[in-house]
Amino acid sequence: MRNPGMQCFKxxxxxxxxxxxxxxxxxxxxITTFExxxxxxxxxxxxxxxxxxxxxxxxxxxxxxxxxxxxxxRTSDGVDTTFVVPNSGTGxxxxxGAIAINTGGVVAGSYQDSGSVNHGFVRAxxxxxxxxxxxxxGTGxxxxxVPRAINTGGxxxxYxxxxxxxYHGFVRSAAGKITAFNAKGAxxxxxxxxxxxxxxxxxxxxxxxxxxxxYxxxxxxxLHAYxxxxxxxxxxxxxxxxGTxxxxxxxxSGxxxxxxxxxRYADSGKIVRGFIRAxxxxxxxxxxxxxxxxxxGNGTYAFSINDAGVVCGTYGDSSFHAHGFVRAxxxxxxxFQARGSGTKxxxxxxxxxxxxxxxxxVGFVLDSxxxxxxxxxxx
Length: 379
Known about the structure:
Low-confidence stretches: 1-27
Helix content: under 10%
Number of helices: 1
CATH topology: Methylamine Dehydrogenase, Chain H
Structural class: mainly beta
Largest sheet: 4 strands, antiparallel
Number of domains: 1
Distance between the termini: 32 Å
């Protein structure tokens, strides 16, 4: 399933990082853009933000002038801390990135080694880094282990790619025990299997109770969402309007403490729309005002939901220009743009990925030169 600006977003996927009108006025808000020192200034270089915790600490990666990715943390007052993950590759498209951070400040992420194999890591609050690999993970280029989320207890969720190119979900306890899992209907061919949303590092894919959301690709190439309880039980589901052909279907992207799930689906025309699924299984589908309704792979991408039920995400207009949006609990949707956003299409603009319980939204800006800049939008 494509998304706005797929050309640029493919680069983030390789690193394992990571891709308007208003129906109601929201309170005054401030958008601040920033770059981490060392960020490159060429196309597909710059600063990306992947996640923010309740304290307002952000994590992500910056891409230097050589195309190598490096992880960082940024406090709510704008102080950046960069760090090095041992064994990270130093070639173009390699390196490491911080993907998620929990309430205690523990960070989960991934790196690619000199052979472009993926590995997971967890960084404790004292800076200690522990690397890990899921049993069964492949050791070839583009294979390996990719964490996607961490909860308050330090449990990590993610996926690994085996030697045959098949995807499998995994959960790693705070003590380091790794358990693999697969959705019942997951395909077993190259590129098929069980995913924990790899397209973006959007907000929590595992909640405090240990419930994980994601999607799987079946043998026919159709996408289906799942929710996995802490006891291992997996429930598979599809949004009511989801298409049933290859590259169509449903992706679950985030979950809050109440078990409410947010995500997106591609319909029979491959137009993307957002959805919210309550813990009782009730669906609410929605589209951001201004989102394209005529271009396959374009539309409304809902990525994150906080404990209050507020949703954020990104939509692409008819020119493939990206806009951030926030959806209030009453259903009102407001689009926004950060300063410096490019307007040439191909994903240029503002992409909102994650929000915390305070309503702070983070993501990235892609400018007119296709350089990335981080941003935070505060209420």
